[in-house]
Design brief:
The structure holds two protein chains of two kinds. Chain A is mainly β. Chain A folds into two domains: about 130 residues, Immunoglobulins (Immunoglobulin-like), CATH 2.60.40.10; about 130 residues, Galactose-binding domain-like (Jelly Rolls), CATH 2.60.120.260. Chain A is built from one helix and 18 strands. In chain A, strands 11, 13, 14, 15, 16 and 18 form a six-stranded antiparallel beta sheet that branches. Chain A has a five-stranded antiparallel beta sheet with strand order 1-2-4-8-6, with no helix packed on it. Chain A is elongated. In chain A, about 40% of the residues are buried. The N terminus of chain A is likely disordered. Chain B is of the alpha+beta class. Chain B has two domains: about 140 residues, Purple acid phosphatase-like, N-terminal (Immunoglobulin-like), CATH 2.60.40.380; about 375 residues, Purple Acid Phosphatase, chain A, domain 2 (4-Layer Sandwich). Chain B is about 15% helix and about 25% strand. Chain B is built from eight helices and 24 strands. In chain B, the strands form four sheets. In chain B, strands 5-2-1-11-10-9-21-22-23-24 form a ten-stranded mixed beta sheet. A seven-stranded mixed beta sheet of chain B has the order 12-13-15-17-19-18-20. In chain B, a hairpin with a 3-residue loop joins β12 and β13. The radius of gyration of chain B is 23 Å and the shape is globular. The N terminus of chain B is likely disordered. Classes of the chains: A mainly beta, B alpha+beta. At the A-B interface, α1, β7 and β8 of A face α3 and α5 of B.
């Protein structure tokens, strides 16, 4: 049998180096009016790592804060923690319940996003449990701009189906690799969830309408897993229109250029692979003139 | 609980699953019963039914389990919106639930009734340990909360300890990944005549996968927090076929890996070392708590943080003793980095254990002290040797199964042989395939003595549509003389015992990707008492 190591150092593990703990200790006020049949609220220590958060605009551009909860009582407990996010902040969990030990903090990751057209600003994320309260300041940063800016980066992306351990957001994360979801690690690519069935659709919504003339699509670097044929469509005031078709692609990235057009969304329609049952896209980039 | 009372209509499964996080139902209950304790003392606080705005709460069905000669556990959980936080309850106020247990389906002869509080700390689950019942007897039970009456269930107590039953019948099941298949096997199982059902683990799966059958996982993330696990159990339990199977028989459950995280081992996460032990133990504590909340288990099995007392024993008179094992919580970490590997000094280290020292000793004591005709190990992972390398001069074994813990297996096999334990039978899940095995004194010597029998049951749905034969497995046949039968379709295993013989029927359905598959018996084997080994029908 292996002995358990429960030191607080081990609790944070590899994440410890990036966690600057903003700690607030709360002792439950004696005589709190609790429901007659409810247990006495536990005394908890709330923490956040990092203790403040920068968020880039775009629903596929999450910033993660690890919320820590530790029991200050002699007994472990199972408190419920509420995460209050004022608009335009959106959180992956607005509440959670967890076992909290006494020797170290239970860590729960929360992803925070804002829509792509959000202006720079400052907001407060509030974490509450019982009498405890912790504020995590959130700064919405400025979007990148300029002619070389990838307009798709971090922007909301959806797909007709989603393969296991992949995500549509993986095609706008600036990462060309095909890496599946792991421990505290998001997938970096998308595959469809309907093997052998085509077409599939992958749509990215730009932060605001923009003039575009180039779309790069990256698929798996190995031909046996690579996408072969696809169409590129853009959404204009007149609706969806096909601006490019790629045929016979074998691996890696392919650039499609087309006459400048004002669009607010880009759609990739997958038509065929080089034999693999799933359509794989590792990145979609959209540029203007 | 009279037929004239207004009854809240039961919503359809589709309506239930339309519920999502964030929708809350605020209910008003006054005069909550003060009974907080579990067990027989509950019967004292018999308050009048509460009139409230509680929507139909029995969306997860009912269950009974862990039958004893004089008692059984009754289970339900209030969850008007099964996928919402606290099942759509407010998360603060406890709610009284009435229960009653009768000798007849019409509830004319109610023999026990009482009130219990469904408490937010336990996700509004209810575990009633009814005692004072007669042995080998069918009972019917139901619950009431607010104006809602639950479906009714049927259960059965175990025989008296001194009884010599002429027969018993049970089924064992495992591995019900809802994303990849329908629970058609449970429809057929519900129609059987059984004393009890054993679930050998993988009741839920922990991933975020969505599949393409419209049975995708909720929440759409790998489970971590207690509310994550609660929502996943609730989603699984909305399945009507699963509910019917629970309502039809008492169940005896144990867990495998996916109730927590794939291939976890004691304090080690599947993500070890990225997920350190401290972090994993929080996940494990959350998983264990939700498991207890959703299973018909006694208060004695309630986890304390990351520790769940789960292994336990059931006697069916002098006919059978069931040792229900936990092969996850106390095991040495998988050898050789897990996976299918050749044996090594590490995997053959005599200090390795799958059961942990205390459970292993408890098992051996329970075998030595048994007076039963059949001595059963109800457990998770493949017990018999299963060489997966097709080459005659090479070996490869599943490091997560008993093959990765050879010394621990040898200790049990040697004990069975040395002590001449009566008719050992191992029941196994995990591998999503049926197998019938003879447990050999020396698996490398086909001529060595047969010490016992192992029946490996396939999955309810995991791995999706299966097939009757598998070329890769057929190629291994020459090195698996002790495993004369396998099948990789979905289904369950039915066993019928008498003092003279044990009959096993492997029951399979041809597909689970769509509902409605018919059932067939793929193979039948007998074991004669006093004569270890498989007898074909």
């Amino acid at each position: 049998m292996h002995s358990r190591h429960r030191t607080s150092t081990a609790a944070l593990g590899a994440a410890a180096t990036v966690i600057a703990l903003g700690v607030v200790a709360i002792a439950a006020a004696p005589g709190d009016s609790a429901p007659a049949d409810a247990a006495v609220p536990p005394s908890l220590e709330l923490s956040a790592g990092p203790d403040r958060l920068d968020v880039a605009p775009g629903l596929c551009s999450p910033s993660t804060v690890q919320l820590g909860v530790r029991s200050l009582d002699a007994e472990p407990s199972y408190p419920t923690v509420d995460v209050v996010a004022p608009p335009p902040l959106r959180v992956s969990r607005d509440t959670f319940t967890t076992y909290v030990p006494t020797e170290y903090a239970a860590m729960t990751p929360i992803d925070v996003v804002v829509p792509g057209d959000t202006a720079p600003g400052a907001y407060d994320l509030t974490v509450k449990s019982g009498a405890g309260r912790l504020t995590v300041p959130v700064t919405v940063t400025e979007r990148a701009s300029g002619p070389d800016t990838n307009l798709a980066l971090g922007q909301e992306t959806t797909a007709s189906t989603v393969g296991n351990l992949t995500t549509p957001c993986g095609v706008v994360d600036g990462d060309y690799s095909y890496t599946l979801e792991g421990y505290n690690r998001p997938p970096t690519a998308w595959a469809d969830g309907s093997p052998g069935v085509f077409p599939d659709q992958l749509e990215t919504y730009l932060a605001r309408p923009a003039v575009v003339n180039r779309v790069d699509v990256h698929t798996h670097p190995e031909a046996r897993f690579a996408l072969r044929d696809w169409d590129v469509e853009v959404r204009t005031d007149a609706g969806w229109t096909t601006v490019a078709s790629v045929r016979g692609h074998t691996s890696g990235g392919a650039t499609s250029t087309f006459p400048s057009v004002r669009a607010d969304a880009v759609r990739i329609t997958t038509i065929a692979t080089n034999g693999y049952a799933y359509a794989i896209v590792t990145e979609v980039e959209v540029y203007g003139p | 609980m009279t037929p004239d009372d207004p009854v809240v209509p039961r919503p359809t499964q589709g309506e239930l699953l339309a519920a999502r996080w964030g929708r809350r139902r605020f209910l008003t209950v006054t005069g909550a019963a003060a009974a907080l304790a579990f067990g027989g003392s509950l019967a004292t606080a018999d308050t009048s039914p509460q009139r409230s705005r509680l929507a139909y709460p029995f969306t997860l069905g009912i269950a009974s389990g862990d039958p004893l000669p004089d008692g059984v556990v009754l289970w339900t959980r209030l969850a008007p919106e099964p996928l919402a936080t606290f099942g759509g309850m407010d998360g603060r106020i406890s709610v009284p639930v009435r229960w009653e247990l009768a000798e007849d389906e019409s509830f004319h002869r109610v023999v026990r009734r009482g009130n219990v509080l469904a408490r937010p700390e336990f996700a509004y689950s209810v575990h009633v340990d009814v005692r004072g019942l007669r042995p080998s007897t069918h009972y019917f039970y139901r619950f009431r909360a607010g104006d809602s009456i639950s479906p009714q269930g049927r259960t059965k107590t175990a025989p008296a300890r001194t009884a010599a039953p002429a027969s018993m019948a049970f089924a064992f099941v495992s591995c019900q990944h809802r994303v990849v298949g329908h629970y058609t096997a449970y429809q057929h199982l519900t129609a059987e005549d059984l004393d009890v059902v054993f679930h050998l683990g993988d009741y839920i799966y922990e991933g975020a996968d969505q599949g393409n059958l419209g049975r995708g996982h909720f929440p759409e993330r790998t489970l971590l927090t207690l509310d994550d696990y609660r929502a996943r159990y609730a989603q699984y339990k909305t399945d009507a076929d699963l509910q019917a199977a629970h309502a039809a028989f008492p169940w005896i459950v144990t867990m495998d890996d996916h109730e927590v995280l794939s291939n976890w081992a004691s304090d080690y996460s599947f993500y070890h070392p990225q997920e350190a032990t401290d972090a994993f133990l929080v996940r494990r504590a959350n998983a264990f708590r939700a498991y207890w909340e959703h299973m018909p288990l006694r208060l004695g099995n309630l986890p304390t943080g990351p520790d769940l007392p789960l292994y336990r024993r059931f006697d069916y008179g002098g006919l059978a003793r069931f040792n229900v094992l936990d092969t996850r919580q106390y095991r040495s970490d998988q050898a050789n980095g897990d996976g299918i590997k050749p044996p090594s000094d590490e995997s053959r280290d005599p200090n390795r254990t799958l059961l942990g020292g205390a459970q292993e000793q408890w098992l051996l004591d329970g075998l030595a002290g048994s007076g039963a005709t059949w001595n059963v190990l109800a457990q998770q992972v493949f017990f018999s040797q299963l060489d997966l390398n097709v080459a005659d001069d090479k070996e490869a074994y599943e490091m997560d199964a008993w093959d990765g813990y050879e010394a621990g297996r040898d200790r049990i096999v040697d004990f069975l042989q040395d002590r001449d334990i009566a008719n050992p039978v191992v029941l196994t899940g995990d591998v999503h395939a049926n197998n019938a095995c003879e447990i050999k004194a020396d698996f490398d010597d086909p001529d060595s003595a047969t010490v016992g029998t192992e029946f490996v049951g396939t999955s309810i749905s995991s791995s999706g549509d299966g097939r009757d034969t598998d070329p890769g497995r057929d190629a291994l046949a020459s090195q698996l003389p002790h495993i004369p039968y396998y099948n990789v379709q979905r289904g369950y295993v039915r066993c019928e015992l008498t003092p003279q013989s044990w009959r096993t029927d492997f029951k399979v359905v041809p597909y689970v990707s769509r509902p409605g598959a018919p059932l067939r018996t793929d193979a039948t084997f007998y074991v004669e008492s006093g004569r270890p080994g498989l007898q074909p029908a």
